[in-house]
Structures are given as structure tokens and as C-alpha cells.
Amino acid sequence: MKKNLVFVGIATLGLIYSCATNPLTGKKTLNFVSNSELFPSSFQQYGTFLKENKVISGTADAKKVETVGIKIKTAAERYLASLGQNDYLKDYQWEYKLVDSKEVNAWCMPGGKIVVYSGILPITKNDAGLATVMGHEVSHALANHGAQRMSASQLQTLGAAGVAAATGSMSAEKQQMWQQYYGIGSNVGGMLPFSRSHETEADKIGLILMAIAGYNPEEAISFWTRMSANSGGQAPAELLSTHPSDATRIANLKAMVPEAKAVAAKFGVVFK
Fold first, then answer.
1. pTM value surpassing 0.85
2. Can you tell me the distance from the alpha carbon of 242 to that of 251, in angstroms, rounded to the nearest whole number?
3. How far apart (Å, rounded) are the C-alpha atoms in residues 184 and 38?
């Protein structure tokens, strides 16, 4: 019992002292990892990735990635400044690279290090489609989703240690059974919904950023419709996925577009 109380106490203290309000979402976020800890590692990993993969440069597509990326970065700066967060991006070191890969993907590491795979360009089709992708990925970094997932993983590990302590007097078979129950329950009931909520947050922030940058947020719906068609319905069930289903995501985007346009209008950007 005492061991259980210790683990509960540690988790509670972690929740109390590691929650901060993110200015972009207005929500309390669980975060044990500071940018000063996370960014140097992120920058190093990014440099290693670029050395180990073929970076495309000097082409029209590479220029497009850089141009759209700069516009999204500028939109983020303007948006954060309007929220009174002028210094929020002071430690970011922005880079925008196009990498030769058939993978339909893109990502932004903590600190503003962006990669777009060439395999996604046939689906983005135009600048607005690319802005949808880059705005979404940048939003993950701005909302500190990487650090939050690391923090949640630490709590999940702490919970597993609590289960081990609570079942220590049981047989090895029962201990393994309870660990399996905990693993499934903490993933399906905790980690996966947590990840899906991050995707929805990144969609919302990304719509706002692309709109401020001058790209019609309605184009995001067209892009994700193309993405859905490209997947051929092969995605796992939403309950067991880190991402919302395509249908859920598209429905959410349709509901988010008016707000994105309203925010952009405050910056003098109006769409017909």
C-alpha cells in the first residue's frame, strides 16, 4: 500500500508542477520537458537525418517548400504576437527541406525543423495543399506536442511501475496478466486518444496559420479528401489509431474553417 501511495504521489506532483497553459490552445498541457532540453537533441537528430537522406535542392518543388514554409513561419510569428507572445519563438531555428522519398508524409521537429517528402507533393497539388500540410506539422511543434507525448509516456511508465508494485506478491503469471491489462488500457484509453487530440489541435492551429498566410483554409478539406482517396480505406479503426479517421478529420475541418477565416480577417486577409 505504501508503495502505491508513493507512485500516486509522484504522479500527482508531476501533474501539479508540470502543467502550463499553451497560448495557442488555451489549454493546460502536461509537459515535463523544457525547450532547452528538447531543442538541442531535435536539431542534432535533424542534421543526422539530412545527412542520411537525399535532400532535393535547386528545383521548383524545393523552392515551393521553402516559400510556403516561410509564409507559415511568418503567420505563426504574427499570430503569436497578436496573443502577446512575441518571445515564444525566440529559440526556434527554422529550416524547410524537401527530401526524396516515395513516402506520403511530412513532419516538423521541435524547434521548427521541417521535412516534406516528395511523395506527398502529387497529393498536395498546389501551394494551398502544401500549406495545409506544413501548417499542420508546424502546429505540432508550436503546441509542444512532442514534449507532451514524451511526458505522457513517462507517466505511462510510472503507472506500469505502480502496477508492478501492487502485484508484486502475486504469481508471475498474474503479474504479467495485470501488466498486459494496464498496457492495453493505458494505450486505448489514454495514449491513443491523447495523440488524436493532438492531431485535431494541429489541424485547427494549422488552418489558422495557413489562412493568415493567405491560403484559403477550405483547401485543407480538398487536400484531406485527396489523402483519404489515396489511402484506399486502409487506415486502422479510429479507436486503435493515433490519428482521427479521415471522415472525422474532414468533418472537423469543415466546422473549423469559419473560425480560421475570422482570425485571418483580423490580419486583413479575406477570402471570397
1. no
2. 17
3. 28
